[in-house]
Amino acid sequence: MRAVWLAARAAVRRRRVQTLVIWLVTLVSTGSLVVALGLVDAASAPFDHAFAKLNGPHVVAEFDRGKVSDGRLARAARQPGVEAVAGPFPQAAVDIPRDTGNFGLGGEITVVGRADPKGAVDRVDLWAGRWAVRPGEVVLNRQSDWTADDLGKRFHMPSGPTLRIVGFAFDLSHTADAWVTPGQIGALHPTASQLLLRFRDASSQSTLRAGLATVTDGLPRGSLNGSQTYLALKHRIGGSARAYAPYLMAFGILGILVAVLIVAHVVGGAVVSGFRHIGILKALGFTPGQVLGVYLVMVSVPAVLGCALGTLGGDLLAGPFFRFVFTGPASGVLHDSLGIAPWVNVLALLGMPLVCVLAALGPSVRARRLSAARAISAGSAPRAGRALGVQRRLAGTRLPRSVSLGVGLPFARPARSAVTLAAVVLGVATVTFAAGLAATLNGFGSGRHPYDVTVYVGEFRHGKEVRPVHSDPELQSLLRSLPGAARITARSDDEVLLAGGTQPVMLEGRRGDLTLDSVLTAGRWARRRGEVVAATPFLRRNGLEVGERLRLRKDGREERVTVVGATMDTNDRLVIGAWPTVTALVPRAAPIAYHVTLRAGASPGAYARAVRAADPGLAPQLNGPNNVTGTIVGSATALTLMLALVASLGVFNTAVLNTHDRRRDLGMLKSIGMTPRQVTVMTVTSMAVLGVAGSLLGVPLGIVTHRLVVPRMAGGLDISLPPAMTEVWHAPLLALVAPAGVLIAVLGALVPARRAARLTVAEVLHSE
Known about the structure:
53% of the residues lie in helices and 19% in strands. By secondary structure, it is of the alpha+beta class.
């Protein structure tokens, strides 16, 4: 083995280009695969860990206290399929004015009377202070990013008493915004009872609905206001991860395929170009097994190093990337469990080198079978070449001689050319997929925000809020009168409660030229009072469809609305209505912002400056790219460039091997008058032919990949994309990606071609 190691180490040092190619391709492939598999695992594992630790409820059900008593609810929960139950707890809805410094709480909040943070179901994580044990005390549902120094401060409830904060707790299932003692809740006038249930079978939404139906069977009709399941919460929290994972997996799989092709190509080329070296090794006494070992070790060294660095890089990138992906109300708890699972690292560290070794096994076995005499003679004897027939046919055409010779060269080594072509095809497919992904995401970003400028009402300067000097009607007229304005839409935001839910719903109102300006994916726009459109994630989270009715509550008012359409927005709490619907529920609703669409050619920056000059209490903001969109496009671009570079290195390796194999032919051609420029053109043309074929095959493959991956990314966010955002393959984009194969091939062949052009006749033929 010492001799094998010495020979393999010498081969690694001698074949620096091939070693670099193997190292780079395994590095890129392993890194992207680690992040992708880690993200797939993280889409559910952190939530499952936190949910199990807190013994969370499978179903949170809200009942009308006026229709069913707590005692009857407790008896109804004693069903064979119910594993554990907590409650019923009295529940009140309290309206908290915004911007009053109440620790981030505003709008209508849910307050529950609960005597203990522990229990058979839903152990609340009390991370600061203590639980409320007497009247006048309250515990807020806040994450640990709030400071414990706020303990002891007062929390004022306009419709009830002022309470002292004695603790901060976090509830992953968000069963309440605040907790008080059962003796205190009466002063807040509870109207509902909350029941927390765990079932023995909680594997699917259908089984949970069936279990809840068993509990509610026999209760008064209409007593169940609503319910939410843990599966809906888990799906919502893991949505971003499911959106990122498909495209990362696509790049990881493409990287693995490129790695297999490149490694097989490099080792195969090393065997063919090293016939003489193999013969010398065998003449010196190397056994066939030792020759096989030399080539496998030659591949394993850079492959193991690339896999190790790729795994390390994937682990380092995963931390900030996962924290970016997992944002939201449960991010603080989930971040403690985020990270790459050990099985992912083990799979990468063992699996990728194994893939490389298996890819190298075929060419290495060929080297093992060669006898010493045959290897030496094969390495030194001239080759007649298999491309002469093609070159002779092309010689009769009007093509320049250097071009006709170059077109025939790939046929001299058909197996080598086929592997190189496959690498180019994958490189072109990657470029095509990335271009289509960028086009879709750009359309997604502009479709979600089709306006140019958002003008917010109120500007903060030096810690103080500056209010507009104009009234609401005057502001809309003012903004429309400024140069460049085409359409103005006023937007209001108010938090309301969905009957049966504990988390607030964001009710947005629209008034003006664009009553509803999001992309519609189903149904129609709201036209009259009592009609709303909702974000697709909101509908899926609550098990609703277009045409169903909702009950929205605010300050004792209740409005029954019908969902008449679905929008592409990713906010899973968003419901949008026309102005009459909003003012029926929130009479004092006022715009918080105005969306401005400019005329063609108008400058958003100039319009923003005009807004500031017209009223110092307005804060215009130019609509820029979405952070998530920018992250995906940026990372996809980086991965595409790296895989395209790897494909170019595969072409580079082929051009080097072809030049090495045909040194004698090059010397003969130069001796009869071929110029260095013609040698360069011939070598580049030989690879450009593969580039053209690579584009013809790779572009359709990239389009297929785009059509497979993008719907899965959208499904991860619970949205549906309109055809305009998925059918992006129009002439301009196709014209942009079509030359990718030629570009990859030419870039890879240029350096070896120039090197071949500099060879002198004497240098090539000195040993003849």
